[in-house]
Design a protein that fits this description.
The complex is a heterodimer. Chain A has strands spanning 5-7, 10-14, 19-24, 32-37, 44-49, 55-58, 61-65, 71-76, 85-93, 96-99, 103-108. By secondary structure, chain A is mainly beta. In chain A, strands 2, 4, 5, 9, 10 and 11 form a six-stranded mixed sheet that branches. A five-stranded antiparallel sheet of chain A has the order 1-3-8-7-6, with no helix packed on it. In chain A, a hairpin with a 6-residue loop joins strand 4 (32-37) and strand 5 (44-49). The N and C termini of chain A lie far apart (38 Å). Chain B is built from no helices and eleven strands. In chain B, strands 2, 4, 5, 6, 9, 10 and 11 form a seven-stranded mixed sheet that branches. In chain B, strands 1-3-8-7 form a four-stranded antiparallel sheet, with no helix packed on it. Chain B is globular and about 40 Å long. Classes of the chains: A mainly beta, B mainly beta. The interface between A and B is medium-sized, with 22 and 24 residues.
Chain lengths: 109, 115
């Protein structure tokens, strides 16, 4: 369907370990966005990727868009307890905007 | 306003009651979405407005759900004859750009509980 799949669904890491979530689509994406949702909160925009093979960094976060524009990843280096939350990729198609299934990150102090 | 404002923040409705959820997008934002988020799930697309035009309502789960944005700013999501399965957080998001490829700012949501 229209939804993009994310793996893993859940991830528990020790504080200081790295974390990666992957977003996969069966169709080519025009662009992809990433959002973070803290427990009890609402999604907050992190970044948008548009170009094939694009890599963008925000401090400890690295975002990649695949060469075929069908997948994307978010990597967090040296996780901190403030990184806790669910990370969603999201795509637009026509007049619709869909969220991925999400990866819930727990950071153990 | 500075952000997207949703009201009420919490709503408890008896089964069969009608409810109206309000979204005040950021001033000047053209695009507006409504989402439904069940506990532990991701946001599910409900409907999309570009100014006052509802361009897509394919995500509305039944004809009990109705959304409007008559003047291209404030939007209302109405649910008639609420059912227990309607219990969820309803999120509104807006974007400055026309079309669905923009950067979205979300409101804090309305948590609806149907008892």
């Amino acid at each position: 369907g229209q939804q993009v799949m994310q793996i893993p669904q859940y991830q528990h890491v020790q504080e200081g370990e790295d974390f990666t979530t992957y977003c996969n689509s069966s169709t080519t994406l025009s662009n992809i966005q990433w959002y973070k949702q803290r427990p009890g909160g609402h999604p907050v925009f992190l970044i948008q990727l548009v170009k094939s093979g694009e890599v963008k960094k925000q401090k400890r976060l690295t975002f990649q868009f695949g060469e075929a524009k069908k997948n994307s990843s978010l990597h967090i280096t040296a996780t901190q307890t403030t990184d806790v939350g669910t990370y969603f990729c999201a795509r637009n198609t026509g007049n619709q905007f869909y969220f991925g299934t999400g990866t819930s990150l727990t950071v153990i102090p | 306003g500075a952000g997207v404002s949703q009201s009420p923040r919490y709503k408890v409705a008896k089964r069969g009651q009608d409810v109206a959820l309000r979204c005040d997008p950021i001033s000047g934002h053209v695009s507006l979405f409504w989402y439904q988020q069940a506990l532990g799930q991701g946001p599910e697309f409900l409907t999309y407005f570009q100014n006052e035009a509802q361009l897509d309502k394919s995500g509305l789960p039944s004809d009990r759900f109705f959304a409007e944005r008559p003047e291209g700013s404030v939007s209302t999501l109405k649910i008639q004859r609420t059912q227990q399965e309607d219990s969820a957080v309803y999120l509104c998001a807006s974007s400055l750009t026309q079309g669905t490829g923009g950067r979205y700012t979300f409101g804090s949501g309305t948590r609806l509980t149907v008892v």
